[in-house]
Design a protein that fits this description.
Layout (H helix, E strand, L loop, with lengths): L21 H15 L4 H17 L5 H33 L3 H7 L3 H41 L1
Length: 150
């Protein structure tokens, strides 16, 4: 599926006269598409996968299963974060038309390295920790509630 398959809602910028400028509209539409390229399938999966892994891993109160779930969640989140950034720049390159847009969309090296070194590990640790805590307390509350009812 290509990025062109998705419809982008036009964004009007009002000038001080109350009318929208055609140039401003075209620039806004292009930048909206460039910014929207960030939100791809891999980006959403980088939120969902650690949630599923950690909530499932904390269901059993066993240390071995929890350690495996933590490692799996860290690796999966880091990998999905990096794939998401690569896909973002690929989509931006595909929708670029002019030489200025091509220059912008091909300047991805620093962003990829920054994501690989800083953002990816930070997101992996953060999402794993948050979903681990939510799963741990959620399951323990649910189990105590079930025992109280019986």
């Amino acid at each position: 599926m290509k990025y062109a398959d998705f419809r982008i809602r036009p964004c009007k910028i009002e000038t001080h006269l109350g009318r929208s400028s055609l140039l401003r509209y075209v620039l806004d539409r292009f930048m909206e598409a460039m910014i929207a390229a960030r939100y791809n399938l891999w980006w959403y999966l980088s939120f969902l996968v650690p949630a599923l892994i950690m909530i499932t891993g904390t269901f059993w109160n066993k240390r071995n299963i929890l350690i495996i779930a933590i490692i799996l969640s860290l690796v999966a989140t880091y990998t999905l974060c990096n794939i998401s950034v690569r896909e973002k720049w690929k989509v931006r390159y595909e929708i670029a038309k002019t030489s200025k847009e091509l220059d912008y969309s091909s300047a991805d090296g620093a962003n990829l390295v920054f994501t690989a070194i800083f953002i990816g590990p930070f997101e992996a640790i953060l999402y794993t920790t948050i979903w681990g805590i939510i799963g741990w307390f959620g399951w323990s509350r649910l189990k105590t509630k079930r025992t109280e009812e019986t």
